[in-house]
Amino acid sequence: MRPLPREVFESLVADALDAVPAELMALLDNVVVLVEDRNEDEPDLLGLYEGHALTERGWQYGGDLPDRIMIYREAICDVCETAEEVVEEVTVTVVHEIAHHFGIGEQRLHELGWG
Description:
Blueprint: H1 6-19, H2 22-25, E1 31-36, E2 47-50, E3 67-72, H3 73-78, H4 83-101, H5 106-111
Parallel strand pairs: 1-3
Antiparallel strand pairs: 2-3
Helix pairs in contact: 1-4
């Protein structure tokens, strides 16, 4: 489907973040969620977590720039046929990338149905 307007897509990402339980959101530490059109290196990538997962942070962690979760608007719209599918894919992608912040790997996410 054609890419949704940025404002509409950003509101879907905000809705997906609002749906994450408050207890989990409270545990996010030093993370920013951004919407970008596409990943230059991997144009088909739907989302990306860049940073140091909580499970990898040690005593030396501090003063670092925020970890980044990127949600790729055009790539997600490319794999969806309807607006309802976009809503679902945004939710899955947001949860998937947040899970990486908590140290959950790709294989486990796929096993859990969030791949």
